[in-house]
Amino acid sequence: MRIAFLYNRSLDDPSHAAEDDIPARSPVVAALERLGHRVVPIACTLDLAKMRRRLIRMKPDVAFNRVESLGGSDSMMAAITLLLDSMQIPYTGNSTAALIGTASKTVVKERLVEAGWPTPRWITANGGTQFVDDGVQTAEENPPVNSQRRYIIKSDLEHASFGLGDSSIIGPCAEAHIRNSIREREKSTGRRHFAEEFIDGREFNISIMGDPPHVLPPAEIDYTSFPAGQPRIVGHGAKWDPLSFEYHNTPRQFNFSAGDLPLIRKLTSLTFASWNLFGLSGYARVDFRCDSQQRPWILEINTNPCISPDAGFAAALQQAGIGYDAGLQLILEDAIRRGPIPILPPHRHPTTVHAS
HEC profile for 228-289? Predict the structure, then answer.
């Protein structure tokens, strides 16, 4: 099979976290070649006309899409899939509509609120605050900010824990201070941010793939090595800095007690529901935090998760008894079976799921 392996260089990635910056060293390319495919790497930029010419010359059977950022912003990654849509080339992963629909974390949270699903309350620099109260389907606009809560400042459009570290946790403090902190972060980075209530509890990543979709074994981040007082977050250092403490002390664990089974069922149900609500396809990951009462809160919908062998998606594959190469082959087969994606996909009705 002729595969166009699409990737972006680190210089186009705001987090400098492009997983396949050098295709000759890419574990994804190596796995595809071990599977017997002919792989042609194509470095993607916003010069779509140049990319189109290369794809016309190559005539790929399918594109393996690993573009995570373009033009210095993750929000532009959908430009590549839009080009593939226009050329009627099948590709792996999520559709253009799904990538655009989940590009903004705050837009995702707004849709979750509309569906009545639990997501932590949030504050923007100039807008209001929103939340689903106590994980039940009761939404309220512009509620008063509880000055006893802590918040975590996040980039709205960038992923891969862009700029996320211990200093991202603020509070307890007044609402005015929270908004000022958001503005300061926006000024220093030139990117839109928001503050999300920090749920200081257990953290789970649930990977999902296929058609029909199936959930891979849930993973929990193990923070037991963190010293008292250190925020329990998977920040930028934990993902990308091998010299950091966090990088070596945020392992995943897949073993749960019988008492955790009701919670795991809730997480699984919300993952399936998120897949349907946002019209996902190919593969994705949903990130959760659970509070002291074991209530799950949806943090993010990741429609383009890292699939390197040391990343969470590959770990979940292994836990499910699926080898790395076999997992990539499943992703390819799903793309071929799905075929070219219409630029205007059919409307999909959201699935109603209760968190209790």
Answer: CCCCCCCCHHHHHCCCCHHHHCCCEECCCCHHHHHHHHHHHHHHHHHHHHCCCCCEEEEEEE
Tokens linked to 227: 């010293």
pLDDT at 26 over 60: yes
Backbone angles phi, psi at 308, to 5 degrees: -65, 155
C-alpha 67/C-alpha 80 separation (Å) is 8
Helices (H), 42-148: 48-58, 78-87, 96-101, 105-115
Distance, CA of 149 to CA of 170 (rounded, Å): 9
Longest CA span, the chain: 60
Residues 85-125 pLDDT 10s: 999 999 999 999 999 999 999 999 999 999 999 999 999 99
For the cut 90, the answer to whether the pLDDT of residue 207 exceeds it is: yes
Measure the CA–CA gap between 107 and 233, rounded to whole angstroms: 22
3-state secondary structure of 181: helix
Q: What is the mean pLDDT of the chain?
A: 87
What whole-number distance in Å separates Cα of residue 279 and Cα of residue 97? 8
Q: What integer is the mean pLDDT of 248-269?
A: 94
